[in-house]
Amino acid sequence: MSTTRPIVIGNWKMHGLSEHLAEIRLLTAMLDGVELRCDVAICPPATLLRVVAEALDGTRIAAGGQDCHFESEGAFTGDVSAVMLRDAGATYVILGHSERRQYHAETNALVRAKALSAHRAGVCPVVCIGESEDERLRGVTLDVIVRQLDESLPETASREPLIIAYEPVWAIGTGRTPTDDEIVEVHSAIRDELVRRLGHEAGMATRIVYGGSMKPANARAILALSDVDGGLVGQASLQAKDFLGIIAEFAPA
Ligand code: PGA
Questions:
Q1: Which residues contact 188 (CB under 8 A, 6 or more apart)?
Q2: What is the pLDDT of residues 10-64, one digit of tens each?
Protein backbone atom coordinates (compact mmCIF):
# COMPACT_ATOMS: atom_id res chain seq x y z
CA MET A 1 0.00 0.00 0.00
CA SER A 2 1.20 3.49 -0.73
CA THR A 3 2.14 5.75 2.15
CA THR A 4 -0.02 8.47 0.52
CA ARG A 5 -3.81 8.66 0.96
CA PRO A 6 -5.72 6.72 -1.73
CA ILE A 7 -7.37 8.63 -4.56
CA VAL A 8 -10.38 8.14 -6.80
CA ILE A 9 -10.14 9.99 -10.11
CA GLY A 10 -13.06 10.46 -12.50
CA ASN A 11 -12.18 10.51 -16.19
CA TRP A 12 -15.06 12.04 -18.12
CA LYS A 13 -13.33 11.44 -21.46
CA MET A 14 -15.15 13.26 -24.34
CA HIS A 15 -18.38 13.59 -22.38
CA GLY A 16 -20.01 16.61 -20.81
CA LEU A 17 -21.63 19.90 -21.81
CA SER A 18 -22.32 22.85 -19.50
CA GLU A 19 -25.48 21.18 -18.21
CA HIS A 20 -23.34 18.34 -16.82
CA LEU A 21 -22.20 20.73 -14.10
CA ALA A 22 -25.39 19.69 -12.33
CA GLU A 23 -23.66 16.36 -11.55
CA ILE A 24 -20.78 18.26 -9.92
CA ARG A 25 -23.20 20.22 -7.77
CA LEU A 26 -25.02 17.02 -6.85
CA LEU A 27 -21.78 15.28 -5.94
CA THR A 28 -20.50 18.11 -3.74
CA ALA A 29 -23.91 18.32 -2.02
CA MET A 30 -23.94 14.57 -1.37
CA LEU A 31 -20.40 14.68 0.02
CA ASP A 32 -21.19 17.57 2.34
CA GLY A 33 -20.49 16.49 5.91
CA VAL A 34 -19.25 13.03 4.84
CA GLU A 35 -15.82 12.13 6.19
CA LEU A 36 -13.59 11.26 3.25
CA ARG A 37 -10.84 8.69 3.52
CA CYS A 38 -9.49 9.29 0.04
CA ASP A 39 -8.59 12.14 -2.24
CA VAL A 40 -11.02 12.76 -5.08
CA ALA A 41 -10.50 14.36 -8.48
CA ILE A 42 -12.59 14.88 -11.59
CA CYS A 43 -11.04 15.28 -15.03
CA PRO A 44 -13.60 16.84 -17.39
CA PRO A 45 -12.93 17.70 -21.04
CA ALA A 46 -10.73 20.81 -21.47
CA THR A 47 -13.75 22.94 -22.41
CA LEU A 48 -15.24 22.42 -18.95
CA LEU A 49 -12.08 22.43 -16.86
CA ARG A 50 -12.24 26.01 -15.65
CA VAL A 51 -15.94 25.95 -14.74
CA VAL A 52 -15.60 22.56 -13.07
CA ALA A 53 -12.57 23.80 -11.10
CA GLU A 54 -14.55 26.87 -10.05
CA ALA A 55 -17.53 24.74 -9.02
CA LEU A 56 -15.17 22.55 -6.96
CA ASP A 57 -13.32 25.46 -5.37
CA GLY A 58 -13.55 25.22 -1.59
CA THR A 59 -14.65 21.56 -1.72
CA ARG A 60 -12.42 18.55 -1.10
CA ILE A 61 -12.57 17.54 -4.76
CA ALA A 62 -9.81 18.56 -7.17
CA ALA A 63 -10.00 19.07 -10.92
CA GLY A 64 -7.70 17.68 -13.58
CA GLY A 65 -7.02 17.55 -17.31
CA GLN A 66 -7.04 14.51 -19.58
CA ASP A 67 -3.90 15.24 -21.60
CA CYS A 68 -1.34 17.99 -22.19
CA HIS A 69 1.35 18.96 -24.66
CA PHE A 70 4.99 18.50 -23.62
CA GLU A 71 5.85 22.14 -24.31
CA SER A 72 4.50 24.93 -22.13
CA GLU A 73 3.48 27.12 -25.10
CA GLY A 74 4.06 27.48 -28.82
CA ALA A 75 2.68 26.97 -32.31
CA PHE A 76 0.80 23.74 -31.59
CA THR A 77 -2.73 24.33 -32.90
CA GLY A 78 -5.39 22.53 -30.93
CA ASP A 79 -3.09 21.54 -28.07
CA VAL A 80 -3.21 22.55 -24.42
CA SER A 81 -0.17 22.73 -22.15
CA ALA A 82 0.22 21.70 -18.53
CA VAL A 83 0.78 25.35 -17.59
CA MET A 84 -2.59 26.18 -19.17
CA LEU A 85 -4.27 23.33 -17.31
CA ARG A 86 -2.79 24.63 -14.08
CA ASP A 87 -3.99 28.14 -14.95
CA ALA A 88 -7.51 26.76 -15.51
CA GLY A 89 -7.49 25.10 -12.07
CA ALA A 90 -6.07 21.60 -12.66
CA THR A 91 -4.21 19.76 -9.91
CA TYR A 92 -3.82 16.54 -11.92
CA VAL A 93 -3.46 15.50 -15.54
CA ILE A 94 -4.11 12.05 -16.98
CA LEU A 95 -1.31 11.10 -19.39
CA GLY A 96 -0.77 8.19 -21.77
CA HIS A 97 -4.32 6.87 -21.47
CA SER A 98 -4.67 3.86 -23.77
CA GLU A 99 -7.14 5.83 -25.90
CA ARG A 100 -4.42 8.44 -26.46
CA ARG A 101 -1.84 5.74 -27.14
CA GLN A 102 -4.23 4.01 -29.58
CA TYR A 103 -5.88 6.93 -31.42
CA HIS A 104 -3.04 9.46 -31.24
CA ALA A 105 -0.11 7.04 -31.47
CA GLU A 106 1.35 8.27 -28.19
CA THR A 107 4.59 6.53 -27.27
CA ASN A 108 6.17 5.99 -23.87
CA ALA A 109 8.79 8.63 -24.72
CA LEU A 110 6.07 11.19 -25.47
CA VAL A 111 4.20 10.33 -22.26
CA ARG A 112 7.44 10.78 -20.36
CA ALA A 113 8.00 14.24 -21.91
CA LYS A 114 4.43 15.21 -21.04
CA ALA A 115 4.86 14.00 -17.46
CA LEU A 116 7.99 16.12 -17.16
CA SER A 117 6.11 19.19 -18.42
CA ALA A 118 3.31 18.49 -15.92
CA HIS A 119 5.84 18.39 -13.08
CA ARG A 120 7.39 21.63 -14.27
CA ALA A 121 3.92 23.23 -14.24
CA GLY A 122 3.16 21.93 -10.75
CA VAL A 123 0.50 19.49 -11.97
CA CYS A 124 0.52 15.88 -10.77
CA PRO A 125 0.72 13.43 -13.69
CA VAL A 126 -1.47 10.32 -13.66
CA VAL A 127 0.51 8.05 -15.97
CA CYS A 128 -1.55 5.23 -17.48
CA ILE A 129 -0.11 1.87 -18.43
CA GLY A 130 -1.78 -1.41 -19.32
CA GLU A 131 -1.58 -4.49 -21.51
CA SER A 132 -3.79 -5.33 -24.50
CA GLU A 133 -5.86 -8.49 -24.51
CA ASP A 134 -3.47 -10.08 -26.97
CA GLU A 135 -0.51 -9.33 -24.68
CA ARG A 136 -2.31 -10.86 -21.71
CA LEU A 137 -3.16 -13.98 -23.70
CA ARG A 138 0.48 -14.27 -24.82
CA GLY A 139 1.59 -14.15 -21.17
CA VAL A 140 3.72 -11.01 -21.54
CA THR A 141 1.66 -8.68 -19.32
CA LEU A 142 4.36 -8.01 -16.72
CA ASP A 143 7.04 -7.43 -19.37
CA VAL A 144 4.79 -4.91 -21.13
CA ILE A 145 3.84 -3.12 -17.90
CA VAL A 146 7.38 -2.81 -16.56
CA ARG A 147 8.62 -1.56 -19.92
CA GLN A 148 5.84 1.05 -20.21
CA LEU A 149 6.55 2.16 -16.67
CA ASP A 150 10.30 2.42 -17.14
CA GLU A 151 10.02 4.34 -20.38
CA SER A 152 7.20 6.67 -19.23
CA LEU A 153 8.64 7.76 -15.86
CA PRO A 154 10.20 11.24 -15.96
CA GLU A 155 13.44 11.82 -14.02
CA THR A 156 11.48 14.14 -11.70
CA ALA A 157 9.41 11.17 -10.43
CA SER A 158 11.67 10.60 -7.43
CA ARG A 159 11.00 14.08 -6.03
CA GLU A 160 7.63 15.20 -7.44
CA PRO A 161 4.29 13.45 -6.83
CA LEU A 162 3.12 11.10 -9.54
CA ILE A 163 0.34 8.55 -9.81
CA ILE A 164 0.43 5.35 -11.85
CA ALA A 165 -2.86 4.05 -13.26
CA TYR A 166 -2.92 0.38 -14.20
CA GLU A 167 -5.61 0.05 -16.84
CA PRO A 168 -5.77 -3.21 -18.78
CA VAL A 169 -6.86 -2.05 -22.25
CA TRP A 170 -9.35 -4.92 -22.57
CA ALA A 171 -11.09 -3.92 -19.33
CA ILE A 172 -11.77 -0.30 -20.31
CA GLY A 173 -15.44 0.32 -21.05
CA THR A 174 -16.10 -3.40 -21.55
CA GLY A 175 -17.61 -4.41 -18.21
CA ARG A 176 -14.82 -6.98 -17.85
CA THR A 177 -12.22 -6.81 -15.08
CA PRO A 178 -9.15 -8.90 -14.28
CA THR A 179 -9.35 -11.37 -11.38
CA ASP A 180 -8.22 -10.16 -7.97
CA ASP A 181 -5.02 -12.21 -8.33
CA GLU A 182 -4.28 -10.68 -11.71
CA ILE A 183 -4.68 -7.14 -10.33
CA VAL A 184 -2.50 -7.89 -7.30
CA GLU A 185 0.19 -9.46 -9.47
CA VAL A 186 0.45 -6.38 -11.70
CA HIS A 187 0.20 -3.80 -8.89
CA SER A 188 2.89 -5.54 -6.89
CA ALA A 189 5.18 -5.69 -9.95
CA ILE A 190 4.60 -1.94 -10.44
CA ARG A 191 5.38 -1.28 -6.75
CA ASP A 192 8.62 -3.30 -6.96
CA GLU A 193 9.69 -1.42 -10.06
CA LEU A 194 8.82 1.98 -8.54
CA VAL A 195 10.89 1.21 -5.43
CA ARG A 196 13.77 -0.03 -7.58
CA ARG A 197 13.67 3.06 -9.81
CA LEU A 198 12.75 5.82 -7.35
CA GLY A 199 14.08 4.49 -4.05
CA HIS A 200 12.04 3.19 -1.13
CA GLU A 201 10.49 6.44 0.07
CA ALA A 202 9.34 7.84 -3.28
CA GLY A 203 8.43 4.36 -4.55
CA MET A 204 6.14 3.77 -1.57
CA ALA A 205 4.66 7.28 -1.71
CA THR A 206 3.59 6.83 -5.35
CA ARG A 207 -0.05 5.79 -5.64
CA ILE A 208 -0.97 2.95 -7.98
CA VAL A 209 -4.63 3.13 -8.96
CA TYR A 210 -6.66 0.57 -10.89
CA GLY A 211 -8.84 1.52 -13.87
CA GLY A 212 -11.12 -0.42 -16.19
CA SER A 213 -14.87 -0.99 -15.68
CA MET A 214 -14.76 0.03 -12.02
CA LYS A 215 -18.27 0.62 -10.66
CA PRO A 216 -20.00 0.68 -7.27
CA ALA A 217 -20.70 -3.05 -7.49
CA ASN A 218 -17.04 -4.11 -7.84
CA ALA A 219 -15.21 -1.17 -6.23
CA ARG A 220 -15.11 -2.52 -2.70
CA ALA A 221 -13.39 -5.76 -3.68
CA ILE A 222 -10.90 -4.08 -6.02
CA LEU A 223 -10.03 -1.19 -3.69
CA ALA A 224 -9.33 -3.62 -0.84
CA LEU A 225 -6.59 -5.42 -2.79
CA SER A 226 -3.01 -4.97 -1.73
CA ASP A 227 -1.17 -2.14 -3.48
CA VAL A 228 -4.38 -0.78 -4.99
CA ASP A 229 -4.32 2.86 -3.89
CA GLY A 230 -7.54 3.98 -5.53
CA GLY A 231 -9.23 4.01 -8.91
CA LEU A 232 -9.38 5.73 -12.27
CA VAL A 233 -13.05 5.66 -13.21
CA GLY A 234 -14.53 6.34 -16.64
CA GLN A 235 -18.20 5.58 -17.26
CA ALA A 236 -19.15 5.41 -13.57
CA SER A 237 -17.74 8.90 -12.92
CA LEU A 238 -20.31 10.61 -15.16
CA GLN A 239 -23.19 10.26 -12.73
CA ALA A 240 -22.70 11.65 -9.20
CA LYS A 241 -24.57 8.72 -7.65
CA ASP A 242 -22.30 6.08 -9.21
CA PHE A 243 -19.11 8.03 -8.51
CA LEU A 244 -20.14 8.54 -4.91
CA GLY A 245 -20.83 4.81 -4.67
CA ILE A 246 -17.14 4.22 -5.40
CA ILE A 247 -15.78 7.02 -3.19
CA ALA A 248 -17.97 5.75 -0.35
CA GLU A 249 -15.95 2.53 -0.25
CA PHE A 250 -13.29 4.56 1.56
CA ALA A 251 -15.73 6.30 3.88
CA PRO A 252 -15.86 5.09 7.49
CA ALA A 253 -18.50 2.40 8.02
P1 PGA B 1 -14.15 2.79 -17.68
O2 PGA B 1 -12.90 3.69 -18.15
O3 PGA B 1 -14.27 2.95 -16.19
O4 PGA B 1 -15.33 3.35 -18.42
O5 PGA B 1 -13.82 1.38 -18.06
C6 PGA B 1 -11.76 3.81 -17.35
C7 PGA B 1 -10.74 4.66 -18.05
O8 PGA B 1 -10.60 4.55 -19.28
O9 PGA B 1 -10.04 5.48 -17.42
A1: 226, 227
A2: 999 999 999 999 999 999 999 988 889 999 999 999 999 999 999 999 999 999 9
Say whether 69 is catalytic: no
Using the Cα atoms of residue 27, residue 11, residue 4 and residue 155 in order, give the sign of their dihedral.
negative
Q: What is the CA radius of gyration of the chain?
A: 17
Distance 236 CA to ligand 1 centre (A): 8
pLDDT-based confidence at 3, cuts 50/70/90? confident
Measured N-to-C along each axis, helices 216-223 and 240-247 cross at an angle, to the nearest 10 degrees, of 20
Residue type, 63: A
How far away, in angstroms, is 199 Cα from ligand 1 center? 30
Phi, psi for 16 (deg, rounded to 5): 115, 120
What is the torsion angle, in degrees rounded to the nearest 10, for the CA atoms of residue 175, residue 131, residue 43 and residue 188? 100
A 10 A CB-CB count for 32 gives 9
Looking at residue 36, the DSSP 8-state letter turns out to be P
> pLDDT tens, 226-243?
999 999 999 999 999 999
Spatial distance between the Cα atoms of 203 and 156, rounded to a whole number of angstroms? 12
Which atom in ligand 1 lies closest to the alpha carbon of residue 11?
A: 9
